[in-house]
């Protein structure tokens, strides 16, 4: 990943670094202070830097991977760390000092400019109002997770104040249309922050709507607290919410990629909710991670040699049947009530086939391809349902974060990188060379900082570290 020195401007580099350092010093003093809240509240008296460092893609490079297959596109070449002018703070917004963030698949998609360059999203958003025009820039600051400290709040904000320790979920919505008031995900102006908006979380500072903010779980470090946001909320809506699969006690839940960034949270939610997860993984190491989470029924799809496509255009129904028979062998003859789908093209035909009569296939993401092909006879004649699910509404995101804060759901952080190595972190996710979530330290100088509730942490230390220790 290239690191570019910015041109000199009003806030010179030394002044920027000094302003950022003052903010970090105040946050670090809170680590050992008798009254951490008082130390953190002091950020309100510190100057906001005119610029900050952030990870970006650039509009003039959207064709850099032209002609390459998806697997050959390298995020390390397209993600850059550069100086970002601090955006104007609008009503209902907050500026957050980001201590840590994380890499999601949407960061990978942004970095390889698939399925479309995200500048199309920024251009569309920029046309909405004079204030949203800030987002339409020739660079895109990426990242849809963040944990940090509120620096400033805009006009009309009453719930949050400078010094608050927060995590941010990634739902950005205008809430001016009636369609979004029962379910904010149905608002026509719903966007994913850091993917369809600018000024995301892989940076020293981030601009968010204050209704994206939630309390930081006190027993977690900054990097641990940053990693659940997007995937934990997504798994909650997809699996638990009535807007998704509406999982109940006793359900059998087939979870693809059960040790990955999304599947690891679905696995925990299934176990917590009285369901039985069938964890599909691709290696013995990933199977062991599922066992550490408490799962017992595991299929190593690579080790057992499942190949659902006989060639690029033809799926192999015999492999669907073999897979279904393996599931029944594990469950004592039962089919899954719910299939938790996110690989997409590669697995969707099998998912529809193996779901029980009247069962639900709930789908998001499509990391192996967006064009899904399945045999509709197994859907229609067996009264199955396909439910599309996308991130989470405000209430679902808050409930998912509450589970983390109570120690019921644990972060699945396996490794962290400094901000300058975000390209390498994204490349690991792109290559599926990671376990759980890959974190990024933004302002935080080291792992392990930011823990406030040491007693709660001690009770869950092993679970918090199970992906790191693997």
Topology record:
Blueprint: E1 2-3, H1 13-29, H2 36-41, E2 51-58, H3 75-78, E3 80-85, E4 93-103, H4 105-111, H5 119-126, E5 139-141, E6 146-153, E7 165-168, E8 171-172, E9 191-192, E10 205-209, E11 213-215, H6 222-226, H7 229-240, E12 252-256, H8 263-272, E13 276-281, H9 284-293, E14 297-300, E15 309-311, E16 314-315, H10 317-331, E17 338-341, H11 348-354, E18 360-363, H12 376-380, E19 385-388, H13 394-405, E20 413-418, H14 422-430, E21 437-441, H15 454-465
Parallel strand pairs: 1-3, 12-13, 12-17, 13-14, 17-18, 18-19, 20-21
Antiparallel strand pairs: 2-3, 2-5, 4-6, 4-10, 4-21, 6-7, 7-11, 8-9, 15-16
Helix pairs in contact: 4-14, 7-8, 7-13, 10-11
Question: What's this entry about, in short?
Answer:
This protein is an alpha/beta fold and 470 residues long. It contains 15 helices and 21 strands. Helix 7 crosses helix 13 and helix 10 crosses helix 11.
